[in-house]
Specification:
seven-stranded mixed beta sheet, Rossmann fold, alpha/beta
Length: 183
């Protein structure tokens, strides 16, 4: 898997999205279409062939399912599930767990990063995904303190190409690759 041909996703959990868990809501339908269009652009213009999802509820799952749909028309595309720890979905509702495992079964690669939960496992997951990716597709409201905001900051530090979609306005902001920041 080439870094320049890989894209990972980051985005808010349903509670931070305007439509929350209602994926039939018009705002969610529009957001999914924007995400799909951006993924097609990455595939056709940037030659991205691998997508990585962390499979959290919300944007991660939405993006994973969109990639699985796009594989029908773009068979060169693969999906990796970067699972932070074994029991990630253990406390979720049955429908959410079923959706989670359905995505894993249909993905091309499953990579469990560690066996059990630790206080830094989500940060490790974000770093893993950004380090393996030349592109980061983020659904982010601009809050720098959120996990999504921290992932966006790390992507900028590493000089990754970044596409941000604002969840309320659906504005797309593209930041081209830069030299990694010196610490």
């Amino acid at each position: 898997m080439e870094v320049k041909r890989t894209c990972c996703f980051t985005g808010h959990r349903p509670q931070r999205l305007p439509f929350q868990f209602d994926e039939q809501h018009p705002d969610c339908v529009w957001l999914k279409e924007r995400l799909r269009q951006e993924m097609v652009r990455l595939i056709t213009e940037e030659e991205v062939t691998c997508f990585i999802t962390g499979l959290a509820l919300g944007i991660d799952m939405i993006c994973a399912e969109l990639v699985l749909e796009l594989k029908e028309t773009h068979p060169q595309v693969t999906l990796e599930c970067a699972i932070p720890y074994e029991e990630q979905a253990a406390r979720w509702t049955v429908p959410h767990r079923e959706r989670y495992y359905d995505i894993i079964v249909r993905s091309d690669y499953e990579n469990q990063l560690q066996g059990y939960y630790t206080s830094d496992c989500m940060k490790k997951q974000s770093h893993y995904m950004v380090e393996k990716s030349g592109h980061v597709l983020a659904v982010w409201d601009g809050d720098v303190r959120s996990k999504t905001g921290q992932t966006v900051r790390y992507a900028r530090e590493l000089g990754r190409e970044l596409t941000i979609i604002r969840p309320v306005t659906l504005e797309i902001i593209r930041e081209k690759k830069t030299e990694p920041a010196l610490n």
